[in-house]
């Protein structure tokens, strides 16, 4: 892997063309008739170590969409793990279907056997629609799994650590843009008050920020508004708010042709994966609008740091938080590097991740 390749959003996808273009090492298609399991495991790169990334259960509109998602997500994990200094490669899995209908002990245990077949080249964890209790079933079939509850020697829910790392990245971006990382009285929009968003709102409110939240779930909005004193805004209005910082913590691709021209903030720093609809175009567009973007895969790495600590054994929560705190300095370095080299912050972060992979590719690693 010598350069960073862009993801294209073409309608049709040719498996070999796409995996060779993006540099994937291996893609495994898993099928099991009795349980109805249809899954794809994407292993993007294992130069730094075994690939690690969560399993997402999603009712994809087509198999192409599922394939595209797993390729995109596993590639993202390679760069996230690399820039975070973890000895891990990038991988991800998707299980196709409506989680509410297909999820069963049998399906999850069968999926675990497919993971096991890879002999440790891919280590799984939670992602969308996969909870800690689901991971327990997967773990009955394979030891190549993280995200187990703390009572089972695992690291538990990674979301609080993800939120902490995101908060660190946000503070670093504030330091760069506003000259101080103090978020007191800063106006901040948080889009999505799910697992990560809620923990982030809690931290921001504790620091005295004025927080505006949006979600598609009224009950979540009500709960977070009442508990932390955040103000509710509509899903659409969130892009037009006169705020200092926008924190996307729901979906990807919310930084796009439509939204960027509406944003009034000076900083974007959130936990959602793949926030830039197009890495090049929208990365540049943000610069032109005078908005500093803290790369998502850098500042949302707290969760995978949690998984890595569990994978290494002897999990210690304080150590994971110490590691997540390093996101502050890395983010500042990346923002400065981007400014100096007149490149987007996303490019600067990708370059650093790629350099580590290239450098370490020349060293014989054992894992
Ligand atoms: N959980 C982690 O540790 C972790 C780690 C790294 C990255 N991420 C990323 O962070 C994001 C949030 O993760 P999570 O675990 O909190 O997920 P989650 O599913 O718990 O929360 C997402 C929230 O976004 C809301 N939402 C969906 N569409 C929305 C819309 N159009 N507008 C506003 N809100 C909307 C959902 O209702 C939900 O409350 C995801 O993109 C995820 O990939 C999470």
UniProtKB/TrEMBL annotation:
Domain Glutamate/phenylalanine/leucine/valine/L-tryptophan dehydrogenase C-terminal per the UniProt entry, residue ranges: 156-365
InterPro entries: Aminoacid_DH-like_N_sf, Glu/Leu/Phe/Val/Trp_DH, Glu/Leu/Phe/Val/Trp_DH_C, Glu/Leu/Phe/Val/Trp_DH_dimer, Glu/Phe/Leu/Val/Trp_DH_bac/arc, NAD(P)-bd_dom_sf
Pfam family membership, one: ELFV_dehydrog
rRNA processing found in the keyword field: no
TM spans (from-to): none
Domain of life from the UniProt record: Bacteria
Record keywords: NAD, Oxidoreductase
UniProt keyword Oxidoreductase present: yes
Family matches, as PANTHER family: LEUCINE DEHYDROGENASE, VALINE DEHYDROGENASE
Protein name: Glu/Leu/Phe/Val dehydrogenase dimerization domain-containing protein
